[in-house]
Structure formats: C-alpha cells, structure tokens
C-alpha cells in the first residue's frame, strides 16, 4: 500500500475553528494583563498632566507647602493642609471602624449561628453598595447638625463628621476581610482549644486572633486605603477650609475633596489644573503603597493556612 | 454547680461579656444599615409619584421629576457593562484556567487587588485625561462609562475567578478526555456551571458603579441637560444630581433631594437583593 492510495483526509478540526480558537485564547490572555495595563496607564496619564506643576512649582515644595491658595493673585499650592486633613479624617474613621469592625467580624465568624452569619454577611455586602453620596447626604442631614449642637461648634462640617461617615464606609471592607481571615483559621485549632477546656472567647483571644492577626492587619490597611481615597463623603462633610488643622473639630480640606471640588472649575491645561493632577498622583501613590502592603500580607496569610 | 472555682466563674463572665460586646458591634452595624435605609425611605417616600419618575425637572429643579437623571444613570450603567463585562470575564477566565503559577501571575493578582483600592476620584482624573481629552470623547456618556468600567473591572474579574475555581476539576478532565479542546471545555462546560456566580458578581459590581459620583463628576455629567441623544452627549445622573441638590447654596425643595436619594438607594437595593437571592438559590440547587 502506498501513500497515494489514501485520499488525503482532513484530520482534527476545521482550520477556521482552530483560527477562531487561537484568536479567543489570545484575547483571554490579553485581558489577563488588563489590570497591569490600566494601572500603568493611570500612572502615565496622571504623570503627564502633572508635569507642568512639577516643573513650575516643584514636587517637593507642593508636598511640604503649608498654604493652599490656588486662586489668589500669587497662588500657593501647598498640599499639607489637604494631606493633614485627610490624615485627621482617616484617624477618626479608624477609631470608629476598627474596634467596631473587628468586634463584628469576631461575632460573625465565631459566635453567630449559621443563619445569623448568612444574613449578616449579605447585609454587609449590601452596605458596601450604598452610594457614598447617599452617606454624605445622611451626614449633612443627621450628623453635622448634631455635632454642631453637641460640641458647641460654629460649624458641624468638620474632620470629625467626615471621619465618622468615612468610618461607616470603611466598615464593610474591614469586617469582610477580617472575617475571611478568621474563617480561614483551620477548625482543628479551634476544636483543639475547646477540647482543652477553653471557653469560646478564650479560644478567640488566644488561638483564632493570633492566627488571623496578619489578615486582620491587612483588613485595617485596606480600610485605611478606603478612608484616604473616599471622595464624596469628605467633599460634602469635611468643610474644605485652607489651614493645616491641628484638631479634628475644625473644617479641613482633604486630598480627594480638593481634587473633586476644584477640578470642575479650573482652566484645562492651566497651572492649577496640573497641580490637581499632581495631588491625584500623590494620593494614588499613597493608596497604592497601602494596598500593596495589605495584598502582600493577605497573600502570605493565605499561603500559611493552605492545607 | 457551686463548686466552680473563681477562675472558672471569671471565665464564664468574660465569655458572656465578650459575646455581648461583639454581638452589639455586629448588630449595631446592621442597625446602622437599617437606620440609613429607613431614614431615606421615611424622608423620600412622600415625593415619589409618577411625575417625579418620568418628567424632567421644572422651576430650577424645585419641581417636576428626575427622569433625565434616572435615564442617564441607566445609560451609563449599560455602557459600563458593555465595556467591563467581556474584558472582566475573559480576565477571570485567564486567571482561573490559563495563568501559570508563577511570579508574573502573582503580579497580575496584585495589580487587580490594587485596582480595587484606587480612589474613585483618581479614576475620574484618569478618565478625564485619557477618554475625555486624549481620545477626544469630551464630557460624554461614553467617557464616563469607560471610566466606570475601569473601576468595576476588578470586581468582575474577582467574581468570575472565584466562580470558576468552584467548578470541580472532574468536569474539566471529563471534557478534555472526550477530546474537547481547552477553550471548548471552558466555554461549554466550565462557564455554564459557573454562570450564577459570574452573573451575580458582575451585577453587584455594576450596581456599585451606578452609585459612584466622583468618576463621572469630571468625565460625563452636567447639572442640567436633556436626555442624551447619543453616547457622545453629556448627561445627568442620579448620584451627581443628588450631590448637587444636597450641597448647592440655594436650597431646593428637600422633597426633591430625598426623593432622588430614595430612587438611587432603592434601585441599588433591589438589584442587590435580587442578585444575592438568586445566587443563594443557585448555590442550593447546584451542589458538587
């Protein structure tokens, strides 16, 4: 039998299908790196637009400048009021959200019945979806007037008011991430501790929390990232004054609030415009580092309890 | 019963205290959510009627309805879905089915997690620089939707990956053993099995995008505009409308403010509840 006696048979799949498969597979692989492309693009486009500010004003003198008077005749573009304001808001937010968030996570992970756990988790997932502008409105309607009256202030629009509402916004992140971390602690450790005669709380306190501590730390870091970057709540509640604040009970300016509040009014391509991009770049760098630390910590924790 | 030593009694008291304190925190958080929803329902319910939902604003926003804002938000969300869902699902497929274990994949994962934490106003400025100015869309629905798509992408990717990873390996192996290619296995076997998780995750991500204000502030919205004719027009949107109504110096009728808040919150809530309920049902139905 020679080769020629066999008619050439098509084997395998039709060519067009193979071609289509390779196109789709490539699209999938390309989408895989979309996140890296977008992060790089954010850096490049913020950087390009910030160039003029860096050239005219100088990055260091912006970051260390204590005056923010962008519209005066001789404008000064100091970021410190906004940076310190953001830190005050974040500090208040953490004081509110870390104890409450971690305690709630402990209850949901360790004490709650299965039913309660399911309900609580879906409510918290839902909480993350409440639009921030709605929380800003709630703050304006309920929180700001009460703070003004209770603390006898001239205005309730303060870092304190904004911080409480930002804390509420950070809660879902802190609760769900730390609950995940506690949930990931192997059940053996718990049953072992209980078998030795420890109470539930002793188990939580001496076994679960130490084992989950890096995850809880990451949850707090992610909460900090959320709090620093939260825009609408601080824009509506922090008051946006121009001084470097030394207490949370005054109106403060924050980085996201400044950018969002002034971007709509500036001349496109002008100095002020470029300075706002530089501020966004600083904000982006801060949240990037915070998130990176949290991610690395979380990843290590995940590895630790894998099997 | 009275033999319990002082130490044991103390441990019991601490146990009760710990339960009470952590329980108070958990239920306190649920209470805050309930209070926010209840308060908005209470203040806003009175202003919802047919005209409010279907008419454009009149008399400098103090009367009439908010239809252009509702329509604008629906339009923005629709286009966000169009841009974000295909890329998000494909990226999720890449991570769950194709990505080799290694440093590069680790970097991709870090990038996705990091994207989720980028402040929304930073996305706004990015969208302004790229889509509005460089690409030249101007302030428009399409520029806003592309910006929101970047912000939603990590949510969709993560949801897709998680859903795919829950599909048991046996199904894949069976399909491959029957001669199906890897891609065919993914498209015909794995994706259908993971569909509930992917769909709910995407919907939840989109509902969050619908409520975002900062990214569209500088890329898409106008204080007042008619219903956009094409995606290259600027638009009104519910969150921005609410922001302006709540903060502008000349106070509008509070009815309009709380009515708008209620429409926005109700929309987001209904989508969330339906999606989550559907996911729970699907999870009960499919057990591996």
Short description:
The complex is a heterodimer of chains A (307) and B (288). Chain A is mainly α.
- Quaternary state, please? heterodimer
The value of Rg of chain B in angstroms is: 24 Å
The CATH homologous superfamily of the largest domain in chain B is named: MetI-like
Amount of helix of chain A: over 70%
| Structural class based on helices, strands and sheet pairing of chain A | mainly alpha
Estimated structural class of chain B: mainly alpha
Describe this structure in words.
- The complex is a heterodimer of chains A (307) and B (288).
- Helix content of chain A is 74%, strand content 1%.
- Chain A is mostly helical and 307 residues long.
- Chain A has one domain: MetI-like (MetI-like fold), CATH 1.10.3720.
- In chain A, helix 6 packs across helix 7.
- The mean pLDDT of chain A is 88.
- With 288 residues, chain B is an all-alpha fold.
- Chain B has two domains: 42 residues; 222 residues, MetI-like (MetI-like fold).
- Chain B has a two-stranded antiparallel ribbon with strand order 1-2.
């Amino acid at each position: 039998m020679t080769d020629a006696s066999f008619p050439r048979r098509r084997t395998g799949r039709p060519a067009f299908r193979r071609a289509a498969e390779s196109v789709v597979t490539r699209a999938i692989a390309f989408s895989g790196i979309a996140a890296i492309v977008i992060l790089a693009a954010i850096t490049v486009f913020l950087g390009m637009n910030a160039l003029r500010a860096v050239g005219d004003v100088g990055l260091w003198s912006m970051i260390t400048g204590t005056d923010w008077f962008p519209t005066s005749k001789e404008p000064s573009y100091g970021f410190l009021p906004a940076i310190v304001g953001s830190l005050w808001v974040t500090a208040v937010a953490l004081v509110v959200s870390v104890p409450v968030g971690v305690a709630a996570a402990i209850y949901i992970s360790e004490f709650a019945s299965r039913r309660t756990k399911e309900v609580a988790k879906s409510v918290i997932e839902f909480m993350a979806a409440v639009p921030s502008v709605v929380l800003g409105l709630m703050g304006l309607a309920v929180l700001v007037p009460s703070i003004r009256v209770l603390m006898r202030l001239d205005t309730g629009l303060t870092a304190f008011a904004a911080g409480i509402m930002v804390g509420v916004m950070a809660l879902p992140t802190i609760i769900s991430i730390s609950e995940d971390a506690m949930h990931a602690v192997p059940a053996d450790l718990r049953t072992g501790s209980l078998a030795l005669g420890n109470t539930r709380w002793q188990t939580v306190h001496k076994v679960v929390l130490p084992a989950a501590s890096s995850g809880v730390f990451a949850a707090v870091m992610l909460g900090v990232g959320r709090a620093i970057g939260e825009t609408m709540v601080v824009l509506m509640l922090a008051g946006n004054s121009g001084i470097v604040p030394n207490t949370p009970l005054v109106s403060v300016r924050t980085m996201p609030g400044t950018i969002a509040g002034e971007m709509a009014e500036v001349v496109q391509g002008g100095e002020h415009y470029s300075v706002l991009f530089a501020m966004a770049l600083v904000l982006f760098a801060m949240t990037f580092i915070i998130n990176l630390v949290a991610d690395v910590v979380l990843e290590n924790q995940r590895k630790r309890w894998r099997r | 019963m009275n033999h319990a030593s002082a130490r044991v009694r103390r441990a019991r008291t601490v146990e009760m205290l710990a339960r009470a304190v952590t329980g108070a925190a958990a239920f306190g958080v649920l209470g805050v959510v309930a209070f926010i929803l209840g308060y908005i329902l209470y203040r806003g319910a009175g202003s919802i009627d047919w005209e409010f939902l279907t008419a454009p604003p009149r008399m400098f926003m103090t009367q009439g309805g908010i239809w252009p804002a509702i329509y604008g938000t629906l339009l923005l969300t629709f286009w966000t879905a169009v841009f974000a869902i295909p890329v998000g699902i494909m990226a999720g497929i890449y991570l769950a089915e194709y990505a080799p274990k290694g440093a590069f994949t680790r970097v991709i994962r870090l990038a996705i997690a990091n994207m989720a934490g980028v402040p929304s106003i930073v996305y706004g400025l990015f969208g302004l620089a790229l889509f509005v100015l460089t690409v030249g869309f101007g302030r428009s629905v399409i520029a806003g939707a592309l910006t929101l798509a970047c912000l939603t992408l990590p949510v969709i990717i993560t949801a897709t990956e998680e859903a795919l990873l829950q599909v048991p390996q046996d199904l894949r192996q069976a399909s491959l053993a029957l001669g199906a290619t890897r891609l065919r296995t993914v498209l015909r076997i794995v994706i259908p099995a993971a569909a509930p998780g992917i769909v709910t995750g995407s919907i939840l991500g989109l509902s969050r995008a619908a409520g975002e204000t900062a990214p569209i502030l500088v890329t898409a919205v106008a204080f007042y505009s008619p219903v956009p004719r094409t995606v290259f027009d600027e638009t009104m949107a519910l969150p921005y409308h609410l922001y302006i109504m709540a903060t502008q110096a000349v106070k509008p009728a509070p009815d309009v403010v709380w009515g708008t808040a209620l429409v926005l919150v109700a929309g987001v809530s209904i989508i969330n509840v339906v999606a989550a309920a559907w996911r729970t049902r699907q999870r009960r139905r499919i057990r591996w």
